[in-house]
Design a protein that fits this description.
Chain A: One of its GO terms (biological process) is oxidative photosynthetic carbon pathway. Chain A: It comes from Brassica carinata (Ethiopian mustard). The complex is a heterodimer of chains A (about 325) and B (about 300). Chain A is of the alpha/beta class and about 325 residues long. In chain A, about 35% of the residues lie in helices and about 15% in strands. The longest helix of chain B is centred in the C-terminal third of the chain and has 19 residues. Chain B contains 11 helices and 10 strands. Chain B is α/β, with parallel strands linked by helices and about 300 residues long. The chains are: A alpha/beta (about 325), B alpha/beta (about 300). At the A-B interface, α5, α6, α8 and α12 of A face α5, α6, α7 and α11 of B.
Amino acid sequence: MAESPLVLVQRPPTFDFMDELLSRNFPVLTTHHTSSAPLLVFLSRHASSVRAVVSIGRFKIDADFLSHLPSLRLIVCTSVGTDHVDLPECKRRGIAVTNAGEAYSEDVADYAVGLLISFLRRIPAADRYVKSGQWAKCGEFKLGIKLSGKRVGILGLGSIGSLIAKRLEPFGCIISYNSTCQKQSIPYLYYPDVVSLAANNDVIILCCALNDQTRHIVNREVMESLGRNGIIINVGRGGLIDEKEMVKCLVDGVIGGAGLDAFEKEPGVPVELFGLDNVVLSPHSAVATPGSLDNVVQLALANLKAFFSNQPLISPVRLN
Amino acid sequence: MNSYLENELQKRYNLHRFWTCPEKSVFLETHRNSIRAIVGNASAGADAKLIDDLPKLEIISSFSVGLDKIDLGKCKEKGIRVTNTPEVLTEDVADLAIGLILALLRRLCECDRYVRSGKWKYGDFKLTTKFSGKSVGIIGLGRIGAAIAKRAQGFNCPINYYSRTEKPDVGYKYYPTVVELAQNSDILVVACALTDETRHIVNREVIDALGPKGVLINIGRGPHVDEKELVKALTEGRLGGAGLDVFEEEPHVPEELFGLENVVLLPHVASATVETRTAMADLVLGNLEAHFAGKSLLTPVV
């Protein structure tokens, strides 16, 4: 029985964790074309009945793509970030967009704290020191930096940022933030801009959305404000930081160091970072646990079911 | 030895660096009647024999909170004072315990290596294990154990503990044996003092109870764990993983562990921050100063 596909799944070949569940519930069409031309031809031939797209991975959903899906009314993203989706175009076409909501928040918050402790206490380097036999040969390892009492500024106090704050408080960290939403109910100190956040903190943790307002929000000025003992932890998007400047600042000691899970051109990472001992590097793994994947699968399914039965969406993204 | 401490001791006292003496018995023969104080640390203290060899010994000031290298009974018997460095290192040790858990479960060391080696270009790193919500079982709910519990609670971890006596007001679940604690915890953390009773407190039975999905974190002393059994369990896949800051024969670490990606190994760094080592050194110096001035000791144990 060849039913007209209602759901199009756009994913890289290895990301098949949702296939079974989706095809059990809906007539599904799957594509992993990454380049425009073959994909658009594919869509023209097969996708005229598609009403929802499940977008897994970083493939760009632009106006051209959207124009080849005349029946499309919903895009379900399995990421929290929607910087790869042309949101204004979606709004124009009456297409709703959902994201991963809070499916990943705990894991990302855990990871941010892990990156910070790993940096301050030199955990990856110390592990290498022991496993390469150097402890027995060369004696005591370099001293680290105390976490307790550090001032931590969180950029973006959404779901992830709040969980990070909750985790760092028992460590004796002093939390402050800058965010689009400043609420009276938030118990932390608010800074009106990123430069003053950086000036008044030892650590800044980036967990805000990437959009036109936040691209390169951490620039040279912010890094100079953070200072030579200051630390950046990035569990947001690479584009939040002016990466070229950051590399210079790390190499020249303008900032103290960084723990980075995201980069501007993943999986490309500036090679100058590989030899530095004042960075902890990570291959965009903050969400990568089975628990988080389960969460996002359930959430995607719930959004699709809600959509097809005209119920309110579970994790809609604001389109303006 | 911490260089700030060494320099300060050199300035204030006639300092002998015992670890540099090629013939310790000759040194003791020469100096036995002039030594009034010993400064020890986590790896070197004073056993009964050394105490007996130094008839003028008045005080042992340890650059550590652990006292397992000092014969406390002998000190009590001879009226020798003993001081250590409690509280100033509690936060750093607790921070590192959580750091070890996160580095282990989320494979942070492997991730860092993965990126630096250029492997990321060829594929994503694999899935790792969530920390939030896992049950944490703590052996020893003293200052350090309590600080670890407080931090783990921020990650929504249910807290279990084993202690010599149950503590009624803490709000954590008490288990009367370490085996039961291990059976009921995803993550087992060693945070008690090393004494004759707690040597090898994590033995084969406990390791088996923790099992292939459980992980062990040791920020206590190496001899808390039967290291031979631990290595076997890890290499045979009977234990899920381990984060270890201490070992039975530091700085020697069983090489079978070097190639395991479910093991994080650290060179005894739980109190090793600039701030804390300075605070510890100041306590050692402050205790010695107080003693020789006839004042109350700052952090006496005996």
